[in-house]
Design goal:
There is one protein chain. With 425 residues, the protein is an alpha+beta fold. It has 2 domains: 100 residues, Immunoglobulin-like (Sandwich); 278 residues, Purple Acid Phosphatase, chain A, domain 2, CATH 3.60.21.10. Helix content is 21%, strand content 32%. It is built from 7 helices and 25 strands. The strands form 5 sheets. Strands 12-11-10-22-23-24-25 form a 7-stranded mixed β-sheet, with helices on one face. The chain has a 7-stranded mixed β-sheet with strand order 15-16-17-18-20-19-21, covered by helices on one side. Strands 3, 4, 7, 8 and 9 form a 5-stranded antiparallel β-sheet that branches. Helix 6 runs parallel beside helix 7. The protein is globular. The termini are far apart. The protein binds fe (ii) ion. The site of fe (ii) ion has 6 residues, from loops.
């Protein structure tokens, strides 16, 4: 081969390589991880006054990633003044039908030893590739009032019609202390591309406001909880064995918040099965030892459905007597894709006091049914809820996607412990 041929061969090879790289970048999966941490999310822990869970993802080149944190500052951040922890990687692999496999490294860290009611900043990363600095605030010790947001199923339209609900909720309550999801966060369990949309919509909000979620039936594939769930969320594990991250309780000031996993074991259809029996005993013990003034339970399936064709009597049969025995205040659910709120009981001998809510935040919407338990109902509406706790008063407000108040009530707790329900709609 003469000199000219060599030069031509090199140029042709270079052209082929360049073309390949351009095509590769053009067709690269948008849900692939990179060295820059993404899907960064805060979760409430069992002790939200002094700790928070942080989870993030990178590609598999990054074996050890760091979390750096310090008290929030008014002035320029000095990274060298941070506390730091190196977090080991857990390599995860997700496949869904014929979609390209996604392999990534997940990192999970619980920041402990924090001061109550205090603002911190943190970042995650390594070497020269770091996330931005995010700020969060720990739960306070006192009776200071606070609010949190509650969403029914996002499920679909995660990057088209759901984002404006999330944005509007934060505009409505920018000081919300946490965001609670009543299940069906995505549509098809295990499908990474849907989680990618969920996280891209949540973006810095997920990394700034602690999130807490109970799984829905769409977060399960058969009897298998989506493996993403406990890889990408760092949720409490104080529930029954085998239901870590899906059945748990959290003590926020003045509030015991409980997640029951009603999607486990194919929607608890097997009433003799372990998930239902284990959760019944656990729920009784968690309520028996409660000292908080307010108790809020969240679970995906409604105790009372909004749809005329739906019902979950096994939930009421097994769990309602326990909720009533301990005077639970509020039950927040999803699943039915319309809105219903009311006080009800299957026990004809008692005056109902538990407020049951069914709501939906995503664009999969149904008309509301005609069931008589509902004191307020609505169909074909994307909604979010702001729930505020101030000592002996619990305030609840439901808003539509454009911020119109749709429903509201208050529960006042008297000195003798009795409650007064005040409807505002
Ligand atoms: Fe559902």
């Amino acid at each position: 081969m003469n000199g000219l041929s060599k030069i031509l061969t090199l140029r042709v090879n270079g052209l082929i390589l360049a073309t390949f790289l351009i095509l590769y970048q053009g067709y690269a999966q948008i849900n692939n991880a990179t060295q820059l941490p993404d899907r960064i999310i805060l979760n409430l822990t069992t002790e939200p006054t002094t700790s928070v869970g942080i989870t993030w993802r990178t590609d598999t080149i990054v074996h050890g990633s760091f979390c750096e944190w310090q008290l929030s500052t008014d002035t320029k951040i000095k990274p060298e003044e941070s506390s730091s922890a190196k977090v080991a990687a857990k390599t995860v692999s997700y496949s869904f039908k014929d979609e390209p496999k996604v392999v990534a490294n997940q990192f999970s860290y619980i920041l402990n030893g924090l001061k109550p009611g205090t603002k911190y900043i943190y970042r995650v990363g390594a070497a020269s590739i770091w996330s931005e600095w995010f700020e969060f605030k720990t739960a306070g010790l006192s009776n200071e009032p606070y609010s949190f947001l509650y969403f029914g199923d996002p499920q679909i339209g995660l990057k088209s019609e759901w984002p404006r609900v999330l944005r509007k909720s934060y505009q409505q309550c920018p000081d919300c202390r946490f965001m609670l999801y009543a299940g069906d966060l995505i549509n098809r369990a295990g499908r990474d591309i849907e989680w990618d949309e969920w996280f891209k919509t949540g973006s810095w909000l997920c990394a700034t406001v602690p999130q807490i979620m109970t799984p829905g039936n769409h977060d399960y594939s058969g009897k298998q909880l989506d493996p993403h769930w406990n890889n990408q969320f760092t949720q409490p594990t104080n529930g029954p064995k085998g239901l870590e991250g899906s059945c748990f309780f959290i003590d926020y000031p003045n509030l015991r918040l409980i997640s029951i996993d009603s999607a486990a074991d194919s929607e608890l259809a097997n009433e003799k099965g372990y998930p239902l029996e284990a959760q019944k005993g656990w729920l009784d013990s968690v309520l028996a030892t409660n000292h908080a003034k307010w108790v809020v339970v969240t679970t995906h399936l409604p105790f009372y459905s909004t749809k005329d064709t739906r019902d979950n009597p096994h939930l009421r049969r097994n769990f309602q007597p326990i909720l009533e025995k301990y005077h639970v205040d509020l039950v927040l659910t999803g699943h039915d894709h319309s809105y219903g709120r009311g006080r009800a009981s299957d026990n004809p001998l008692i005056k109902p006091s538990i407020v049951y809510v069914v709501s939906v935040s995503g664009p999969k919407l149904y008309p509301s049914g005609t069931k008589t338990w509902m004191e307020r109902s609505g169909g074909n509406l994307q909604l979010f809820q702001v729930i505020s706790i101030q000592d002996n008063s619990l305030s609840y407000k439901s808003y539509t996607a454009n911020g119109t108040l749709f429903d509201a009530f208050r529960i006042n707790r008297k000195k003798n412990g009795k409650k007064k329900f005040v409807p505002l709609f």
